Structures are given as structure tokens and as C-alpha cells.
Amino acid sequence: MSKILLFVFTFIFTNVVFAQNFSMDFNPEMVIKYRKDFMTAVKGHNNDIKAIVYGAVPFDNHLNIHLSSLEQMFAEIESLFPEGSDFGETNAKNAVWENPEKFKKAIADARQALVTFQQAVARGDKAKTKAAFKKFGRSSCGSCHKSFKKKQN
Ligand code: HEC
User: Fold this and answer.
1) Considering only CA atoms, which of 54, 42, 48 is closest in space to residue 80?
2) pLDDT tens figures, 81-91
């Protein structure tokens, strides 16, 4: 019995310590770098989807890898922009933090656009899938970047 209690206390204590370390280590520059790398990975999946949908590569069987990755990554966008990560080497506009409701809406719209695109993929019509891909890009990446990302060069 006492061993179990000891285990439980140790477990709770370790978690508290780790939680504290984590918040002490909040480093906005690392968060911004992580966020940009994350977005670059989003771009990688998006480019690969395009190459597959346009028939430039013979990897139709990879389509779901990229789609489900985007689905999971889109679900995390909001968490990539914590308070205090709004200065320095970022191209995010202040609107992300000044207009959080609008930013949340842009994320919700992007996730919905992905669902719509996935439905087009599932129907299996190649021409319509290409058109749906263009629409997906405009109403997810394009639309959010227009309001929330500064132009680079
Ligand atoms: C809901 C908003 C939102 C959506 C949706 C979104 N992005 Fe972004 N993206 C941003 C913001 C904001 C930044 C700027 C981040 C920064 O500089 O801190 C960014 C940055 C980027 C960058 C630059 C990364 C760097 O190294 O500076 C790329 C590339 C990118 N996004 C690609 C995409 C692609 C491709 C999609 C669609 C498949 C997409 N994004 C969807 C908001 C979004």
C-alpha cells in the first residue's frame, strides 16, 4: 500500500516539476522557429498533394498520408500562436493576437475547406479533384495568409 502511495506521490511531484520546467523554458524565439518549420511542413504536404492530384508523380497511394497529416496539423494551428510570440522573426500580423475571433474563424474555414477537398478526392473524378484542390488552396492557405501573414519580399 505505502509503495503505491509513494509511487503516486512521485508521479504527481515529477509531473509538477516537469510542468514548471516547461513553462520556465517558454522561449518565444523557439516557438516562432517551430511554427515556421511547422508551416513549411504543411507546405510540403500541400505540394505533394498537388503533384499527386496533377498526375506528376505515381504516388496515389500516398494521398491519404498527406491529407491526414494536414488534418492533424490544421487542428494545431491555434496553439502555434501563444501570447508573447508576436515579435521578432515572425511574419505573423498583429491581427492574430488583436483579432483572435477572426483568426479562429480562418482556422475553422481552413479545416472545413480541407473536409470539402477530401470529399472531392473520395468521389474520384480527376478533373474535379484538380479544381477542388485549387479551391482548397484559396480558401485555406490563401485566405488566412491574406489577413494574418505579412508578405515576404
Ligand atoms: C489559419 C491561418 C493559416 C492557414 C490556414 C495556413 N497558414 Fe501558413 N502561415 C500562417 C501564418 C500566420 C504564418 C506566419 C508565421 C510566422 O512567420 O510566425 C504562416 C506561414 C507560412 C509559411 C512560411 C513559413 C516560414 O518559414 O516563414 C508557409 C510556407 C506557409 N505558411 C504555408 C501554408 C500552406 C501551404 C497552407 C495551406 C495548406 C497554410 N500555410 C495554411 C497562417 C496560416
Assistant:
1) 42
2) 999 999 999 99
For 11-29, the pLDDT digits (tens) are 555 555 455 445 557 899 9
Please answer whether residues 109 and 140 qualify as being in contact, where contact means their C-beta atoms are separated by less than 8 angstroms: yes
Cβ of 139 less than 6 Å from ligand 1: no
With the most atoms of ligand 1 within 8 angstroms of its CB, the residue from 32, 36, 39, 139 to mutate is 39
Give CA–CA dist 90/144, Å, rounded.
Answer: 15
- Judged on CB neighbours under 10 Å (0-12, 13-18, 19+), 1 is exposed
Tell whether ligand 1 has an atom less than 6 A from the beta carbon of residue 42.
yes
Taking the CA of residue 148 as reference, the ligand 1 atom at the shortest distance is 12
